[in-house]
Amino acid sequence: MDQVDDGILWEVVEVHLDEAEFQWSMWERGLTAPSSTVTDVAGVEARLDAHVQGLVLAAPAVVERLLAPALMDYQAHRAAAASWAWLAAEGDRALGPLCARLVEGDPPERRGIARALGLWDDDAVTSHVVPLLHHVEPEVQAAALEVLVDHGSAPREVVAALVGAASPALWRACIRAGVPAAIAMGLTGELGDDAFDLALWTGLQRRLGVAREAAWAAPERRSAAQVLGACGGERGLRVLLGALGDPRRCPAALWGLGFTGRREAADACARWLAHAELGSLAAEALAAISGLDLVAERMTFRRSDDDDDDDDDDVAPTEDDELTCPDPDRVGAWWQARRAQFDPHTRYLHGAPATAATLAPAFERASMRRRPGLAIELALRTRGAMWVDPRSFTARQRRALVGVSALRLDLTAAILD
Questions:
Q1: Helix (H) / strand (E) containing 254
Q2: Nearest-CA neighbor of 373 among 229, 206, 196?
């Protein structure tokens, strides 16, 4: 029998919390998934919201009984879902307790709380979080700064003083905040690949010369290859085509070629379709140019069981492992039958000439892992006037694209020189 208290079926409410945690984890995963589109992720968000509303119906009792304890479970996604439900139930009144737990919590809990606070659309978040920048613990400062960057309200004079702390998390947050010294440090590669990618994109958005130089100097990195493909013009195309002959640079080059939108790039990708390790990546890039839907056209194979049995059990799966396996003969034949329809000097997005009018539909059709590339290009070409945050809820991403078709944009112009 369900436990009933004040008319609340707590076993049912506990299920709502468990399901909200699960849907939050699926949402985070979906934001970068190669097999998901924005419509797919919007469906996950709807399910997440349904379970959050189930928790809200049990407020205020649910806060003390379930939500507050969930912030001490050492689970980032559970903490995020519980924080979001707490905010949905109590609004501003939840900010004080959540910020207190942001200070006291363990790293996974802190990440989850910061994620929810960063997404919560309320100016009151800033006034509660800014004082945490003065905390003695760098990890707390980093979490606070991540929240403030999400809200676009990080105080520059305070943030600049944070650079130099021996904390990778704080370095990363300072990079996101656009601190030039932090961006330069990230571009050295000493803080890791993720920090390099973040520093490159942030530095380019702030039109820093050091970031442009880093993009041209590191085509073996996917973040750089992506920018070269989208914004490097003819020179970028040549660099990426030349990198295909270097095994170390080839994977990134195939990724970047998909953003060039050029027929010559699609031809190059087609030659890699039969490659055992890179065929899926080549097919993904070719589809981004041509508009081919591999699944709808039934041009894929199921991965064999042998593909899933890795001799090294410690090797974590990558996003590339989630790509479909193309039928190289059928995909190659499809492309050869249609390549004459593509002008060699035109850039294409999913089969349509790249213009401001086709950019929004491209965002809808692109896989979630390719959307950040489109978002970064849009930000660069509009000098920051339009920014689609690929880490935010899909409704916000779609709202950010309103009016993009009316912009006067030349999506073929090179802007990295």
A1: helix 250-260
A2: 229
Q: Are 351 and 291 in contact (CB under 8 A)?
A: yes
Instruction: Look up the pTM and report it.
Output: 0.93
Token output for 15 = 């299920």
Q: Among 243, 411, 38, 263, which Cα is nearest to 255's?
A: 243
d(CA 250, CA 277): 11
- Cα separation, 148 vs 117, in Å, equals 9
* Cis peptide upstream of residue 344 (ω within 30 degrees of 0): no
Phi, then psi, of 277 in degrees rounded to 5: -100, -30
Say what the alpha-carbon torsion angle 217, 367, 198, 385 is, to the nearest 10 degrees.
100
Each residue's pLDDT tens digit in the chain (417 positions)? 356 667 899 999 999 999 999 999 999 999 999 999 999 999 999 999 999 999 999 999 999 999 999 999 999 999 999 999 999 999 999 999 999 999 999 999 999 999 999 999 999 999 999 999 999 999 999 999 999 999 999 998 899 888 877 789 999 999 999 999 999 999 999 999 999 999 999 999 999 999 999 999 999 999 999 999 999 999 999 999 999 999 999 999 999 999 999 999 999 999 999 999 999 999 999 999 999 999 999 999 866 655 555 545 566 678 898 999 999 999 999 999 999 999 999 999 999 999 999 999 999 999 999 999 999 999 999 999 999 999 999 999 999 999 999 999 999 999 998
Give the contacts of 388 (CB within 8 A, at least 6 positions apart). Answer: 363, 371, 374, 375, 378, 379, 397, 400, 401
